[in-house]
Amino acid sequence: MPGRRRERRAQAAYPRTARVNEVLREVVADALERMADVDDRLRLVTVTGVETAPDLSRATVYLSSMTQPATDALTAQRAQLQMAIARQVRLKRTPQLQFEPDPSVAHGQRVEEILRHLHSDPAWGDDPEGGTEADPEDGTEADTEDDPGSDA
Length: 152
Description:
alpha+beta; GMP Synthetase, Chain A, domain 3; two-stranded antiparallel sheet; 5 strands; 47% helix; globular
């Protein structure tokens, strides 16, 4: 029977909370997809991740878009989502769900906004330190510092 112990230890290399997070993400996403067929407020809601407390008492579900109608629908459907988890996942206790917008989505939108601004600004390639500038006539870079090798 010592082989069974080794198998369990090998599986423990992937933390339990990470495994629980992934299973809960799949279960909640599937349940929300079915609920979206009935409740239009949940149509554009996408589960991006789940973070579970180490004691499994709470789980924060991160969503890609959280409009006020979607938040109201999720609050109303919280018990049904927890029941879906209890039916499909074998856990000592079913975590209480909390819903939050995914901060990485907002961060990604901010990065895109900055990149859009940089590309729309005609001087976005200029070096404020005076290193190189774009030559407006031929589109090549011209050195703005004195070149010690030039005979001018």
